[in-house]
């Protein structure tokens, strides 16, 4: 097993391998990827598609001296395997193990922690310019690998425009597999599809000419075929011209699974001093039939077992509904009730479980590709004209549209609902994907209502409330199974918190879906004889100061709990309100995300590490209770 792969301790070990050895190495890499999926969920189809490309890159360039950036780095598993991390590969996406994205802390071959799409060309151009200024004698090459799904990002074209003008020695490898996570969308996708067809004409040119010369009468089917071929040729010329006019030398399309051909073109690219765009055509899921047939499902599939290359068991996750599905169902119901409601997503139809929405209301479903800034500004236009848009984007990706949230939504006070999926910690995807900054970057915008459901019962009512507002709003929710906390929920009313428990010994104020953990903490404290109250904040903005502040003032101690950054987050909002009212804050403790990045692990491991479990919350309350008892005589004497 892994006869060749196990001997690769550095990319330098690839040198001297025969073409037959490299082909065998590719097969061993794919087998290693399949073994990994027998253990845990991981990015799969995208990695299967770049095996030959990774080998060709590392046999054509010495990236210990040159520069290599993988855009949207979830496809770097083959790269990791051949750059000295084979022995650790089984640890990928586990606590303390390899990251599922490039990580400079792991290897000098990883330059940036690329988890968001589109930034690679800008970073690569910066590297090239710095090398030219600081180390011109080294004549380093910079190579960027970017997928066609990420290629439509606006920042990519900003960088291409700049690079073309500077005429720097930069190679952009466009990895074209017709996919983002879902099939790609938009005009650039159509252009790339026609570019793929352009070399069809090259191979058939002679035959078509013979056909034309010998055919006295052309029927409709042949006319259609010839028209399509003509369009392919035109697209190939114009597509190449698009990049050529931007200052890039366009080469391709090239078969991305032919190692020899890839090496030939990559070696040729090294000869050019101007920017080059090498168009490489690959197949997502290559070499594993189920992934080839269904690359969407096999982007990050559940763990599976195999026999003779066939899946015999696909482990299923929890059967209870995740918050993402609850959000989707509520959105679908709202669209059925109100023809003004529409949905916008940024290449995350599957991740946000929006396929039923797309099928039921194709005219009111917009996938804009990986273009989050455009998504929010587009929603503003829809809202201005009378629609009720819902922008459904992961919290970590919505950060890319910060200026549009300010300028186009908040400043204009337009009724757009931002649905922030994957808020909080997200487990093995790690620091590039945690949605922990949203409360801090949203709550300071005037007129933007910010909500956080505490459990499954609150999702639909919050969406209904948001869609009734005349200004912008946001709802954040995590990537986990939706719990239903045992209680009779009070109605969701604007800016109103929910008092769940009262208690004379202390108080917990929670923002979001850690309500269940807080409830279990109170049960643990009750066994110690402590009667602690519990408030579900529901709203970060407007904060229910009439409920929360008097409760804090009366409690011996208060603990705030949130699955977001403490700096600028929910607890900061509470502290500001207390300060404004002149209320003592010495007996308040804040639990949440500290001022550091949270490394990849399971979600439960991350919550435990951060002190956001029932046991940790209860322990903090016990410490505060003991401190209050110790200082009680002093406080009484002071009074």
Descriptive report:
The strands form 4 sheets. A 7-stranded mixed sheet has the order 9-8-10-11-13-12-17, with helices on both faces. It is globular, with a radius of gyration of 28 Å. The model is unreliable at 200-209, 234-238 and 634-639 (pLDDT under 50). The chain is of the alpha/beta class. It has 3 domains: 5-180 and 246-311, Rossmann fold; 323-476, Thiamin diphosphate (ThDP)-binding fold, Pyr/PP domains (Rossmann fold, 3-Layer(aba) Sandwich), CATH 3.40.50; 498-638, Rossmann fold (3-Layer(aba) Sandwich). The protein is built from 23 helices and 19 strands.
Summarize the structure.
This protein is an alpha/beta fold. It is 42% helix and 15% strand.
Low-confidence stretches: 200-209, 234-238, 634-639
Annotation, overall tally of beta strands: 19
Oligomer: single chain
Distance between the termini: 77 Å
For the record, what is the CATH homologous superfamily label of the largest domain?
A: Thiamin diphosphate (ThDP)-binding fold, Pyr/PP domains
Shape, principal axes of CA atoms? globular
In DSSP terms, counting alpha (H) and pi (I) runs of 4 or more, how many helices?
23
CATH class call of the largest domain: Alpha Beta
CATH topology of the largest domain: Rossmann fold
CATH architecture of the largest domain: 3-Layer(aba) Sandwich
Sheet-strand content, in percent, reads: 15-25%
Please indicate the count of domains.
3
Determine the mean pLDDT. 88
Q: Any idea what the radius of gyration is?
A: 28 Å
User: What summary fits the major beta sheet?
Assistant: 7 strands, mixed
């Amino acid at each position: 097993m892994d006869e060749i792969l196990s001997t690769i301790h550095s990319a330098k070990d690839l040198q001297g391998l025969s073409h037959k050895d490299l082909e065998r190495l590719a097969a061993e890499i794919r087998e290693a990827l399949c073994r990994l999926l027998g253990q845990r969920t991981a990015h799969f189809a995208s990695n299967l598609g770049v095996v030959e490309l990774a080998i060709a890159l590392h046999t054509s360039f010495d990236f210990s001296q040159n520069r290599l950036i993988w855009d949207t780095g979830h496809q770097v598993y083959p790269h990791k395997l051949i750059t000295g991390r084979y022995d650790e590969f089984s640890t990928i996406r586990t606590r303390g193990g390899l990251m599922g994205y490039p990580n400079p802390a792991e290897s000098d071959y990883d330059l940036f922690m690329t988890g968001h799409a589109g930034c690679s060309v800008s970073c690569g151009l910066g590297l090239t310019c710095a090398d030219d200024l600081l180390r011109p004698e080294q004549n380093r090459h910079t190579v960027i690998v970017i997928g066609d799904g990420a290629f439509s990002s606006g920042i990519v074209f900003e960088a291409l425009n700049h690079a073309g003008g500077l005429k720097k020695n930069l190679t952009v490898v466009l990895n074209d597999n017709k996919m983002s996570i879902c099939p790609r969308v938009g005009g650039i996708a159509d252009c790339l599809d026609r570019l793929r067809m352009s070399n069809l004409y090259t191979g058939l040119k002679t035959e078509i000419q013979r056909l034309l010369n010998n055919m006295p009468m052309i029927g409709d089917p042949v006319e259609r075929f010839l028209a399509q071929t003509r369009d392919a040729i035109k697209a190939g010329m114009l597509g190449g011209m698009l990049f050529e006019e931007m200052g890039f030398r366009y080469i391709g399309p090239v078969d991305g699974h032919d190692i020899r051909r890839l090496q030939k073109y990559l070696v040729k690219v090294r000869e050019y001093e101007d920017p080059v765009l090498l168009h490489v055509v690959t197949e997502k899921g290559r070499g594993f039939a189920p992934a080839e047939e269904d690359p969407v499902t096999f982007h990050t599939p559940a763990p599976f077992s195999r026999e003779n290359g066939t899946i015999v068991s696909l482990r299923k996750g929890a059967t209870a509904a995740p918050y993402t599905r609850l959000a989707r169902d509520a959105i679908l119901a709202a669209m059925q009730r109100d023809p003004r409601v529409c949905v916008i997503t940024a290449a995350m139809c599957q991740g946000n479980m929006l396929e039923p929405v797309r099928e039921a209301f194709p005219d009111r479903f917009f996938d804009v590709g990986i273009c989050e800034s455009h998504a929010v500004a587009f929603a503003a236009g829809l809202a201005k004209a009378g629609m009720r848009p819902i922008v459904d984007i992961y919290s970590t990706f919505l950060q890319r549209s910060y200026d549009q949230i300010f300028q186009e939504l908040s400043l204009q006070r337009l009724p757009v609902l931002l649905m922030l999926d994957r808020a909080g910690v997200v487990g093995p995807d790690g620091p590039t994907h945690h949605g922990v900054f949203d409360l801090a970057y949203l709550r300071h915008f005037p007129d933007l209502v910010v909500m956080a459901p505490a459990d499954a019962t609150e999702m639909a009512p919050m969406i209904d409330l948001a869609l009734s507002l005349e200004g912008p709003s946001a709802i954040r929710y995590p990537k986990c199974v939706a719990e239903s906390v045992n209680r009779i929920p009070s109605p969701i009313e604007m800016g109103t918190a929910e008092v769940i428990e009262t208690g004379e010994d202390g108080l917990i104020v929670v923002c979001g879906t850690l309500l269940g953990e807080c409830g279990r903490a109170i049960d643990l404290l009750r066994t110690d004889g402590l009667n602690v109250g519990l408030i579900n904040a529901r709203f970060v903005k407007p904060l229910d100061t009439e409920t929360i502040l008097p409760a804090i003032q009366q409690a011996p101690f208060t603990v705030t709990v949130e699955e977001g950054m403490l700096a600028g987050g929910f607890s900061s909002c509470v502290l500001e309100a207390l300060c404004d009212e002149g209320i003592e804050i010495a007996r308040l403790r804040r639990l949440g995300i500290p001022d550091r990045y949270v490394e990849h692990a399971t979600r439960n491991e991350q919550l435990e590490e951060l002190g956001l479990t029932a046991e940790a919350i209860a322990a903090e309350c016990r410490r505060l209770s003991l401190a209050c008892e110790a200082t009680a005589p002093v406080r009484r004497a002071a009074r």
